[in-house]
């Protein structure tokens, strides 16, 4: 496991200002590790800001994805693919939302083996309650990271998330 290394970076003044105190910066060559670290930091921020609503960011993300579909009910498999989750993980995330009556699972009338996910009125209300908190988290991130940089980052991360080549094992990719 690549634990990275600690490096010291110094800001060099070009306009005569005082030099910034050197900061410790963890670096790593592991792409997955860097994404995980950043993800944990962001999730903590979003979860903290969403806390008054009783939702975690992943729960808000599910409600948001369902709300964006309108009347088009996704199957568990379709939503799992959209959110880049395996069905088991999605199921674990759906349970508390179903328990709290924010969504309901229905049997597809065309194929009784397929479960469809429907946002309830209570779920729509919870989504609408949480949306301003989510917007606050978005604005906070863009304030710190930069709106243009955040848009570029989202683009890169989504290209990684939906790249089918990255879902293959080493043997499949050859």
What keyword list fits this structure?
174 residues; alpha+beta; Arc Repressor Mutant, subunit A; two-stranded antiparallel sheet; two-stranded antiparallel ribbon; 4 strands
Question: Could you explain the architecture of this structure?
Answer:
The chain is α+β, with helices and mostly antiparallel strands and 174 residues long. It has a domain at 45-162: Arc Repressor Mutant, subunit A. Helix content is 54%, strand content 14%. It has 6 helices and 4 strands. It has helices at residues 31-50, 57-69, 76-83, 87-99, 121-145, 147-161, and strands at 5-9, 23-27, 103-108, 111-119. Strands 1-2 form a two-stranded antiparallel sheet. It has a two-stranded antiparallel sheet with strand order 3-4. Strand 3 (103-108) and strand 4 form a beta hairpin. It starts with a strand and ends in a 13-residue tail after the last helix. Mean pLDDT is 87; it is low at 1-14.
